[in-house]
Amino acid sequence: MRTIIKRVSEESLLCAAEILRAGGLVAFPTETVYGLGANFLLERACAGIFAAKGRPADNPLILHISSADELPRVAEKIPRAAFDLAEAFWPGPLTLVLKKSSLVPDIVTAGRDTVAVRLPANAAARNLIDLTGAPVAAPSANRSTTVSPTCAEHVREDLDGLIDMILDGGACLAGLESTIIDLSGDSFEILRPGVITPEDLARVLGAKPRLHAPGKDEPPRAPGMKYKHYAPKAEIVVFFGQAHKTAERVNGIIAASADPSRIGVLATNETAEMYDGRALVLSVGSRGDVLEICRNLFRVLRLFDERGAGVIYAEALPERAAGRAAMNRLMKAASEVVRL
Predict the structure, then answer these.
(1) The model's pTM
(2) Does domain 4-211 have CATH number 3.90.870.10?
């Protein structure tokens, strides 16, 4: 049975909220990527998220709330820093990891004593949560390890027939998942980078939080930390080096290929014309606009799959400000790294 897809409207939001209250699964737009939501109070519904995505049970979910006033409902021992960050960045693409309240089921937190919480900027998402009458547990609305969805059609490609409804709110504005910061311990750590940067956080916290490097056997403290993520069907090889050297190496591979049309090249506006046009060359945007690159990265990775690329040779992306988040996603998806 095919999944219902409806454009965001007052009627479709009411329908989606009814589905969530009854224990169903609804994909909905946020400013980051589309989320796959369940009523957080219904453990069977939350278990349905893991089943639909093929998601490992030790990978925690994020709770989405419709108002900062709901934070004490799902978290306890909340530090002053959490309220300061919420005031500065909520609604928006920032997730706070805090000590969980007794109300939060273990399935949401993968058995941990902490919970990840965010207040999305997308008005339809907040309205849906408000109409549901409970926070909504939601990871990205795609099969586990694959490219996150930034439009409703991406969700349909991955989850059609596995969930009850998709709310179509158009393309996501940020295009990458939220920044996650852990405030549950003695020091503050960024568990996943996003478009809200360490420098942005430092202006509120008074000190720059460190980027956490998970140990080999450490269970995930938040989504996107441990497993391979964001990967298209094609393998990705990331090249670090000067643009002309990268283009020279990749063009040599294209020239030697029996079928260059199966080769994808992930480039930028400034470099796309440097590559052999017999390959599928796609730009993620200008190197001078890292937010554009963030917004386009997942869409372009999915385009390579749609157009039949068997391997993608990717330039290293600019690692300044939010560009570090795009590069984090690209490296999570990569099968190989080449340094020139």
Answers:
(1) 0.95
(2) yes
Neighbours of 205 (CB within 10 A): 17
Q: Diameter of the chain by CA atoms?
A: 61
CATH number for the domain running over 235-339: 3.40.50.11030
Helix or strand run (H / E) with residue 96: strand 94-100
Q: Are strands 280-283 and 263-267 parallel, antiparallel or unpaired?
A: parallel
Residue-by-residue pLDDT tens, the chain, 340 positions: 789 999 999 999 999 999 999 999 999 999 999 999 999 999 999 999 999 999 999 999 999 999 999 999 999 999 999 999 999 999 999 999 999 999 999 999 999 999 999 999 999 999 999 999 999 999 999 999 899 999 999 999 999 999 999 999 999 999 999 999 999 998 999 999 999 999 999 999 999 998 887 655 566 666 665 556 788 999 999 999 999 999 999 999 999 999 999 999 999 999 999 999 999 999 999 999 999 999 999 999 999 999 999 999 999 999 999 999 999 999 999 999 999 9
Ranges of each domain in the chain? 4-211, 235-339
